[in-house]
Description:
Elements: E1 6-9, H1 18-31, E2 35-38, H2 41-45, E3 50-53, H3 65-71, H4 79-82, E4 90-93, H5 105-108, H6 115-134
Parallel strand pairs: 1-2, 3-4
Amino acid sequence: MLGVSFTCASPTGYWIKPEIVSEAKKFATKTGATIIETINPQTAVKDADIVYTDTWVSMGNEIEKEKRLKIFVPYQVNKQLMEKAKKDAIFMHDLPAYRGNEVTIDVIDGIQSVVFQQAENRMWAQMALILYLLK
């Protein structure tokens, strides 16, 4: 909707739901943005402004934990992957993060990381929403 190009790297079988991608591509066509899915994390971060990841094992996926911890290893955000993004790219994560799995310590605690600012912004947005809903 905002004209932001988006590339998602994930293993085959873990891609975004097709109906969501289809809807996103409709918006992208109107704004000139691109929506890309790839199995190659290096391709996904090439010249990126933002590198964003999430935990490999979310609530409800615990039964697949061992499988996910193996299959997602090539998708770990580490210094080498961040170097493929733009020099001033930032790193984001929803938190909680599992350091050593989806992100290395040097990235999440590094100068490019904005995860704690991101969490604070989310907190204020959620508090505003609660206030709005309580009125």
